[in-house]
Design goal:
The complex is a heterodimer. Chain A is built from 14 helices and two strands. Chain A is mainly alpha-helical. Chain A folds into two domains: 1-39 and 333-356, no CATH class; 56-323, Orthogonal Bundle (ABC transporter involved in vitamin B12 uptake, BtuC), CATH 1.10.3470. The chains are: A mainly alpha, B mainly alpha.
Chain lengths: 365, 305
Amino acid sequence: MIVLEKRQHPSLWMGYLSPLLSIALTFVVAAMVVSAMGKDPLRVLSLFTLEPLNGKRAIGEVMLKATPLILCSLGLAFCFRSNVWNIGAEGQFLLGAIGAGGMAMWLTETGLTEPGWLWVTQALLLGALAGAAWAAITAWLRDRAHANEILVSLMLVYVANLLLSYLVFGPWKDPKGWNFPQTLRFADSLSIGRLGAGMRVHWGFVVALISAGAMVWLMYFTALGARLRVGGLAPGAARFAGFSSRESLWTVLLCSGAFAGLAGAMEVLGPMGQLTPHVSTGYGFTAIIVAFVARLHPLACVLASFLLSIMMIGGELAQSRVGLPASVSSMFQGVLLMMLLTFDSLIQYRIKWRGRPSKELAKHA
Amino acid sequence: MHELALLIAAGIASGTPLLLAGLGLLLNERAGVVNLGAEGLMLIAAVTGFGLAFYTGQTWLALLGGATAAALFSALLGWMVVYLNTNQYASGLALSLFGAGISAFVGAALVGKKLEINQTEGLSFLADLPFVGPALFQQHPMVYLAVALCLGMVLFLYHSKSGRLLRGIGESPASAHALGFPVRRIRWISVVVGGFFCGLAGAYLSVVYAPLWVEGMVAGRGWIALALTVFATWRPWRVLVGAYLFGSVTMLQLHLQAIGIEIPTQFMSMLPYLATILVLAMISRNPSWIRANMPASLGKPFHPG
């Protein structure tokens, strides 16, 4: 019989090996599914690995999609570290998009478009604030009413989606937009500058990288970060040290809400240029997977965001080039996370082969 | 009067998936396992059930097949959280994300298809009663089966030896283990059975209630069912009452529109989610009351020896 035996010390090796093993096995599963659907697995494999990195434009797209993932996952990793299960980054992202998009729409209508950089900065800040405010609902209900943050933050995703849908189908709809559910296109000066010609990736990517650096500093080089990490690992010890779990609840939720909101704001002011019902392609949920693949470490979040961004683009390519359903990428994302959690148990436990104790032995025991 | 009867009937019909899933999750939680994969399990069952109904035309086969598919994936989740001691929140969440992906993937070919199934007849002799008939007795048999399952759950949990053992494991797995009971096997079985219930709920949605398949059609009902177990302080009958109340809230939007109250549809559609948040906040306000009712080992892994 195979049994798990608790290790004396968590395995350092498995900590690094587990994400690699999970990625490899996800590819094996993907190849099996793809062949079962009668497609050439090698061709699809190249769509998920080589194609997204083929050329400057393609790499720009990977960086573009990695930007919101980095920001959202930084906040989520922060939350999960402190044992606050915020799974509503998607909703906070949407609120950020609504905040920044609404402001840009108003500015365009009133003609207040110069100087662009100033307004863009303010719209981004407003987006971050809106995201933080949305997360604050979860924090407040958790703090005041002890309401489970998993359920509240997730319910708020549905509410945010409906709110966005109300706005773009209703009061914010572009009157000259042939009745499409979208706002008018924002003035050109109200978009975030691009990093280079021929790429859609914008300066938000740099902001995301700086944020990752800031989070490393906050988590590992400040007293606040140390207290938050202790609070997640050993709530009793943190209370003893005079740091309340209330404080950490508010800190991590507001912070992650602001990051997700900023990501949403950058998406509308960056590649979209207007607010539509499809601002997010599930960034807030994919970011959960990023955070876990990254072991909740801020710098690893950047790497994992690239990985998942490539997976998302691979899914789009698989849809347009070989006709697989668009959901292929979210399915494999789920497989990846499940594999990862399974292999992660080998960090704490080791596999042992143990024969069943025979009846005879049991009698003597 | 007839309007009200129809509203009640619609509330019960739309509350039934919440009841079924809520009962399954209640069973899991009574054994100490939180299943955040409910939403994904319901989606997997919904697409499986709809596919079976579409290709075979057999309603019951579709319901059973959908529930079995969910039970299989739940068995996988159970293996992870019970035997490998993976984090219950993260694993359930992974299953929900995976379920959303795989159901959309598998169901891509089923979108827009229609079922050729004869719908409900209800309980013939009671269906003709005035008011009560249209309110209660013109439903699909699944609705009554769900009530029967609720009764069954009460009998099992409170009036059977194995039910008491299961509750005991939820309260104190270590003592149950010390008494020689196979804690992990029982937990695993409860997760599988709970998944089967969630599956019935999902298949009911796509085969009987809707009846159609749309990507993400479960629309948060799995999460609302999770919240329901908290509202019900882990009591089966209260899950039933809560499920029907929430079903009615969902239906209220249609009726308000019929009366002519002008509220944008999006705000009406927010109702079930806002109601969930509101009730959750109200019920949870008294933490000592929740703590007194909550299975003590809820969400905590158990590793014998």
